[in-house]
Specification:
The structure holds two protein chains of two kinds. Chain A is of the alpha+beta class. Helices cover 21% and strands 44% of the residues of chain A. Chain A has two domains: 29 residues, no CATH class; 86 residues, Cupredoxins -  blue copper proteins (Immunoglobulin-like). In chain A, the strands form two sheets. Chain A has a five-stranded mixed beta sheet, with no helix packed on it. A four-stranded mixed beta sheet of chain A has the order 2-1-4-7, with no helix packed on it. In chain A, strand 5 and strand 6 form a beta hairpin. By secondary structure, chain B is mainly alpha-helical. Chain B has one domain. In chain B, helix 1 packs antiparallel against helix 6 and helix 3 crosses helix 4. The termini of chain B are far apart. The interface between A and B is large, with 36 and 38 residues.
Chain lengths: 117, 258
């Protein structure tokens, strides 16, 4: 069965495919910033991002335990399994400081996104 | 670890507990049996186990935003099921009323799947660190206890209202929950970059921070956010409207067929 036929028979699959393609296309050219989690700490703790620009945070969890990246100021929440990575899009943001933390280990896992004009 | 796990589990449990309470009060007032709850909890536990055990794979879907897509789908599903439930109820025919328990089972199962999977992932992570096990499990128990208690309070609070107000209050709360779910789904799709980010509607973080007890409670109950975006607000409105329109549609159809 050709791909076209397959898609014709599966409208839902087609919609998902189109969404994924569109999402990929819109993500192209987005700056990527890496944050690592090690021993329940964020490295770096302070992440600078350009003003009014959407960025892709690549959060790499080097601990064996899962962590949840959370920020009230950024309205973001995402579980990152142990020894795995996750992508979180943030922005475009006005200048300011946006704290984030690891919800599973909030005593140590603290950081902030800083947007400077 | 103890206090942290109380807060974390409480947050996860509250949302599901509130949905269950409203649906339970709704069940009581329309004289249905509550067997559906066992199905909802059972399916929710199975769903959350499957989701948490496969979180690594799911997280990698769609270029590492699979988690957002799956969670947003579950939340949109809750909104749709609550609108369908309202429509079936307001049509008031035996053929439609018999589907109500099915809708309630589905809504609770979706809610528990999402919330429960995060709890399983958290607890599973802690189990690999023996010194943390006891305080975490104690804290989780306390958090779950508080969350369920709030649900029970809401349930009896609703049933304590005058008879004709109970059903309207339940429907209003279901509309708010539907709005909350669809707004949360929109936030997740923005986080995944499937929806584009939009302007912030207001900033109330100075006088009612999200990271406060009233903030957490309002988040669970009405989806309070200190800095909601326009798209989130629109999704919230659409969720509420879907339930209210389903209610009106059912009433209109009901009047048209004597």
């Amino acid at each position: 069965m050709s791909i076209v036929n397959m898609l014709r028979n599966k409208p839902l699959l087609m919609i998902i495919g189109v969404c994924a393609l569109w999402a990929n296309a819109s993500a192209a050219g987005t700056p990527v910033i890496e944050i690592r989690i090690k021993d329940h700490l964020f490295f770096p703790e302070t992440v600078q991002i350009p003003v009014n620009t959407k960025v892709k945070l690549m959060v790499i969890n080097e601990d064996a335990t899962p962590e949840e990246f959370e920020s009230y100021e950024l309205n973001r929440e995402k579980v990152i399994p142990g020894n795995h990575k996750a992508v979180i899009f943030v922005g475009p943001l006005p200048p300011g400081e946006y704290p984030f933390f690891g919800e599973f280990y909030p005593k140590t896992a603290q950081g902030k996104v800083v947007v400077k004009p | 670890m103890l206090l942290n796990s109380v807060v974390l589990i409480l947050q996860e449990i509250l949302e599901a507990a509130l949905l269950v309470s409203v649906l339970m009060a709704f069940t009581r007032v329309i004289n249905l049996r509550v067997y559906w709850l066992a199905g909802g909890i059972g399916l929710g536990c199975i769903g959350s186990l499957i989701l948490s055990l496969n979180m690594v794979t799911i997280s990698e879907w769609f270029d590492y935003v699979g988690q957002e897509v799956v969670n947003a789908s579950l939340q949109f599903a809750i909104t749709l099921v609550l609108a369908l439930l309202t429509l079936l109820y307001s049509l008031k025919t035996p053929a439609t009323l018999k589907w109500l328990p099915f809708c309630m089972t589905l809504a609770v199962a979706c809610s528990l799947t999402r919330e429960g999977s995060e709890i399983f992932i958290y607890i599973e992570g802690v189990l690999s660190q023996p010194p943390h096990i006891r305080p975490t499990l104690t804290g989780s128990g306390i958090g779950a206890g508080i969350g369920i208690s709030v649900g029970v309070l809401l349930y009896y609070g609703l049933l304590g209202l005058p008879q004709h107000w109970i059903i309207y209050s339940c429907l209003l709360l279901l509309a708010i929950i539907a709005g909350n779910m669809s707004a949360q789904a929109a936030v997740l799709l923005i986080q995944a970059d499937w929806l584009s980010s939009s302007i912030v509607l207001w900033n109330s973080s100075n006088w009612l921070p999200e990271n406060s007890i009233p903030g957490h409670l309002l988040y669970a109950l009405i989806g309070y956010e200190a800095t909601p975006s326009l798209l989130q607000g629109l999704a919230y409105g659409a969720g509420i409207l879907s339930v209210l329109m389903a209610w009106s549609l059912g009433r209109i159809c009901n009047k048209a067929t004597p």
